[in-house]
Every structure is written in structure tokens, then in C-alpha cells.
């Protein structure tokens, strides 16, 4: 049995949308997003149900909330508007797309306070009128053990807010630029990068500048992790949009979409499997919106009451 890790939460929040569709307000800067050729709302609802059932079967605590409205197309991605941290702290974030701002829900924060030890909620959402945005653990990939926040600079990730977050929550910022093969900026860090306990999946070639690319790789290796480089094609298939969780008995699981797993090579799968058991999930309809399994799951790094 592999040891449990502070990097891998044992509980998550999952939002099950009833009227899911790719968001027109985010299409301009999300190259991973696709147009649906039919109504996929029922398929998405069912996919979320399967994810919740699969995680619970592995011993992960899953808090499912329903979104019955039709005004929040991306509500299935709650990790963008809040994050939780050891020591009882919760952060609430400013969102770039106006129709995403209503995804923030007081009932979820109240659930966290009721079920877990929450000492402080720090709300950055009031910075939206100043056009300052930081979309949570989509914008930042957090190394909870070595206390590093990796962040790709974008409209949704303001370096000033990254610095502010890191000062308050005790992380060191590592900010860089990254683009896809067409030169379009990567919209969220977590589509190209996953930090686990012993491994890091990352689309290194997307990082702009040889020196910066080498620096990010060096920082990851210095934490003792095995670096697993991803190609642009693998990043496009959401192979980097994965999340390590803690299941029954503390077993570490890497949850990844079936799409992402199919994109990995045999050798990459072998390396990952030496660290944690891979749990593939079918979330194909959700991937139309430009995010995958990791985007769907807001990890809970809080002590239960």
C-alpha cells in the first residue's frame, strides 16, 4: 500500500449540471473547447453521476451538488471558483467570463464549514470590476507538499493575483507563458500540468522560452518527483488534466479521462502506475467544454469535523 499524501485529497466537490453546454463566453480563449452538434446535457448529467459512483466505490468522499439552472454552462467545473487548504482555509476566486461568476455558491461554502474545519474564507471575487482574474486551481497547479504554485499567465490568471494568493496562503509562485502549437496561449495551467505525490505530468514543450522551460523542469525535479513530459497531442487529449486522490485505506488514485489515458504511451502509464493506481473515467461530453476530469473535481484539503 502506497503511503497517503497531502497532495492527494480524500474528498471532492462535484457539480452535476442539468443544462450543460459549451460556453460561448469562453470559446475565444479556450482552444480545447468544441461545439456540440447536439444537446449533450443528459449525457453530461449521466457522466457526472458515473464519476461520483466510481469515486465513491474507491472510498473517495464525494459531495454532489445539483445545478438545475440554465445560466451557468460551465458550472461542472467548480475548481475554478474555490479551493481549500490545510489549516482550515478556503479561497474564493474572481472569474473571467461574466456568466461564470454566478457559479459561486454560498451553500457549498456553508457545507464546507459544517462538514470540515474551516477557520477562514478569503474572497478575491471583488476584484472582478478591476479586470483582475484568477480562476482557482484551473489557473494554478498547486504543489501542496513543496508549497509551489505553478501558473500559466493568461486572461484568467493575473500574475499580480498569483503573487497575492501565494503571500497569503504560503506558496512560492512559478509563473510562465505557455502556448499550443498554433501559438495560442494555454488558457488554464491544469490542462497542461498535473502534480502528484511522486510524479508530474506536464506539456513541457508548450512553455515559452528554453530557459524558462528548463527552469520549470528543474523546479519539479528538485521536489523529488519523476517528470513525465507530455506532447502537444497528449495535452490536447487532456492527458495532463488529471488529479491524484486518496481512496480507501489511503490508496492513491490518479483520476484521468479515458481520452487522456488513451493518449499516454505504455511507458508513461508504467511510470505513473509505479506511483498510484490509474482510474480512467468516461467524461467525453464534458470535454467538449474544454476541460476534463481534473476541472470537474474541487479537492477538499480540510480536516473533517
Automatic annotation (TrEMBL):
Domain of life: Bacteria
Classification via InterPro entries: Amdntrnsf_FN0238 (IPR014541)
A Pfam family that the UniProt record links to this protein: DDAH_eukar
PANTHER family hit by this protein: AMIDINOTRANSFERASE (PTHR43224)
Protein name: Arginine deiminase-related protein
